[in-house]
Design brief:
Layout: E1 33-35, E2 41-43, H1 46-60, H2 77-92, E3 96-99, E4 105-109, E5 118-124, H3 137-152, E6 163-168, H4 181-187, H5 205-210, H6 218-222, E7 231-239, H7 244-248, E8 252-258, E9 260-269, E10 273-274, H8 286-302, H9 304-308, H10 316-325, E11 327-329, E12 333-336, E13 342-343, E14 346-355, H11 358-378, E15 382-391, E16 394-395, H12 398-416, E17 425-428, H13 433-437, E18 443-448, H14 464-479
Parallel strand pairs: 5-6, 5-7, 7-18, 8-17
Antiparallel strand pairs: 1-2, 3-4, 4-6, 8-16, 8-18, 9-14, 9-15, 10-13, 11-14, 12-14
Amino acid sequence: MTFTRISHFSLFFSSFFFLSSTLSSHLYPASATTPEKDGKTRSLYSEILRNEAAARLNDLGKVSDADGYLERTFMSPASVRAGFLIREWMEDAGLRTWVDSMGNLHGRVEGMNASAQALLIGSHLDTVVDAGMFDGSLGIISAISALKVLKSIGKLGELKRPVEVIAFSDEEGVRFQSTFLGSAAVAGILPVTALKISDKSGVTVQDALKGNSIEITEDSLLGLKYDPASIWGYFELHIEQGPVLEWVGFPLAVVKGIAGQTRMKVTVRGSQGHAGTVPMSMRRDPMAAAAELIVLLESLCKYPRDFLSSGGSCNEQTLESLSTSLVCTVGEISTWPSASNVIPGQVTFTVDLRAIDDVGREAVVYELSNQMYKICDRRSVSCIIERKHDANAVICDQELSSRLKSAAYSAVNKMVGQIHEEVPVLMSGAGHDAMAISHLTKVGMLFVRCRGGISHSPEEHVLEDDVWAAGLAVLQFLESHM
C-alpha cells in the first residue's frame, strides 16, 4: 500500500486539490494480522469491525421514509425504526440503553468507575433527502462495533471511565429547518422556543415527539442538559464529505476544527421593463448587477489578500488562514417576475461563507458588503444584505486530537504494516454535532475517506476496509482509556 506525503494537512484543500488518477483504490490486505507477544497472530477483529459493521450500515441504509431513495427526518417513522435497530445493536454490545425526551438514543457502559467523568461518542441518525448511507451512521456504528469487540474479549468492564454512545435524533435540520435539535438539547443550548417550530404540515417539534409517545415540556427540555463536570470529552467519527483523503491516499484524518459560517440573503432591486424596448444604456438591470456581485464574491474568496491586506483589518496569521480555509457559495438565485422577455425588477440570492478564523470571516463579510453596495450604487440599483445565520468556528481540543491521531496511526499501522507518513490533519467545512457539544465539553473528531468526496448523495461510498480502519481507530482510542 502506498501513501502520498503532502505537507500542511491542517489546511482546507478543496480549492487547490485535484483528484489523482490513482485515487484511493488502495486496498488493505485481505487478512491483516499483527504479531502477539507470544508470537501468534490474531485477526484485527475484522468480523465485527468490518464485515458486521458494513452489513449494519447497509441495513440502516434501507430504513427510509421514501421509496427508491434514503430519507430519515426527525421523529419520522423511518427514524424511529432506525432507532430500534441501533438500540438492538447497542444492547448486543453490552450497553444499557434509553431514549431521552428529544428522541436521542443513548447506550452506556459504566466501566470500572461509574462516578468518573464520561467519554461521549456520537453522531446523528437522521439524513438529508436522497441521502447516502454513511453520513452520521458510520460514526454510530463504528463506536458500537468497537465496544462490541471489547465485550467479546471480556474487557468492556475494564474501561476506566463510563463510555456513552449517542445517536442524535436530528443534525441535518431537514424537517424543521433547525439543525442540531438532538445534540443542542444535550449541550443545553436549544431554546425552549424550538419546541414550537413547525414543519411544512404545521406539526411542531413537540407534536412530533408526542406522536411517538415522548412527552416533552420546557422543564424537561432544560433537564436534558448534561452536567459539564460529569463529562470528560466528546469524540465524533464522520465521513470527510470532501476529496482530500482520497487524494492523499490515507483512510483517516484528525479534524483540526470546524469552520464558522455566515449565511446572507442579498436582494437587488432595479427597474422592471420590456426586454425588447429598453435601450441597454438606460437599463437598471438587477440581474446584471447580481451577476457582478456574485463574481465579486468569488474573487474575494479566492484571493482574500487582494481585498483585505491594504486595510489592515487582518493580521498575517488571519490572512494566511483565510487564504487556505475560506469558501463561499451562492446556492440559490430567484428573480421576479422571472420571464424570458422581461428585464427583472428584483433578484435575490443567498451567500454561504465559511472559514476557520472568525475574525477573518467577519472581515470578509464587512468588505464584501462594502464592495457590493458600491457596485449597486454605480449601477443605480438598490441592494439589501441580510445576515440570516452565524455560527462561530469550533477548534478541536489539542489533547483529545493528539490521542485520536495516535489511535488512527496505530489502526492503519496494524492493518498495513509499518507506515512512515503522518495522519493528515484537516479542517471541516461542514457542520457537525460536535459544534453543539463544544458548548458542553472539549471535542475531537476523526474523518474517514469517502469515494470522490461525495456526500449527501446516493453516490456516497466508503470502502469496507475504511469502515474497518474507522472501527479499529475507535477501538484503539477506547483502549487508551483502560
